[in-house]
Design a protein that fits this description.
Blueprint (H helix, E strand, L loop, with lengths): L6 H15 L3 H12 L7 E5 L5 H8 L4 E6 L2 H10 L5 E5 L12 E7 L8 H11 E12 L6 H11 L12 H11 L2 E7 L3 E7 L5
Parallel strand pairs: 1-2, 1-4, 2-3, 4-5
Antiparallel strand pairs: 5-7, 6-7
Helix pairs in contact: 1-6, 5-7
Length: 207
């Protein structure tokens, strides 16, 4: 893996994620299971933009058979490995448009928070479709979770501060949906005001 971010950047993100979002990860998992109608136990899961590994740990502890995490940042992956949150997961430094995984190898492809920074959405979604098993699902989006109790959403928002999100690029849900539909398969946007959204996408088999 090639170092890119400074260690203090990863440490700052890790502390922030731990304090503000840690109570929410189990609810992100619930959103995934609600959207797919499947329990995560026994599934193969890919987390794109996995950061310091909080969702990797959640997937592993919830019984996923195989978990892989992809991130552009060496420091984030190093943090996941060093903390033990990535224990049992395969950690890969890569861009979403060129995922170093076997075709049709994951039941679930998950990404929270990184989709806003994908400059080539169609290329990214095409790569994701290539990685998903027939019948698999991509859950891509951002926010605080649709099933998260309101008190936890409020607490996380307060900890993050009023400036959080100001510099995060906006994403057009209709545009995102059209790209997924163009590539193929069934896609829908699940969203709630003040909470965020998920693109729930069952791509057509690509190979």
């Amino acid at each position: 893996m090639t170092p890119d971010w400074k260690n203090e950047d990863a440490q700052h993100f890790e502390m922030h994620a731990s304090e503000a979002l840690q109570p929410l990860y189990q609810w992100f998992l619930k959103d995934i299971e609600d959207a797919t109608g499947r329990n995560i136990t026994g599934l193969d899961v890919l987390d794109i933009g996995c950061g310091p590994g909080f969702m990797l740990k959640t997937f592993i502890e919830s019984g996923a058979t195989r978990v892989a995490g992809v991130d552009l940042s060496y420091s984030m992956l190093e943090s996941a490995a060093r903390s033990g949150r990535g224990k049992g997961a395969t950690l890969l430094q890569a861009d979403v448009t060129s995922l170093p995984v076997r075709p049709q190898s994951f039941d679930i492809v998950f990404s929270r928070g990184s989709i806003f920074f994908w400059p080539e959405l169609e290329m990214a979604l095409s790569a994701i479709a290539h990685a998903i098993k027939p019948g698999g699902v991509a859950i891509l989006g951002g926010g605080y979770g649709l099933s998260t109790p309101q008190n936890l959403v409020d607490a996380a928002r307060q900890q993050r501060g009023s400036d959080h999100g100001r510099n995060i690029p906006k994403i057009d849900h209709d545009h995102l949906l059209k790209i997924a539909q163009k590539i193929g398969g069934r896609a829908e946007i699940k969203a709630a005001s003040g909470r965020g959204f998920w693109l729930v996408w069952r791509p057509s088999p690509t190979v």
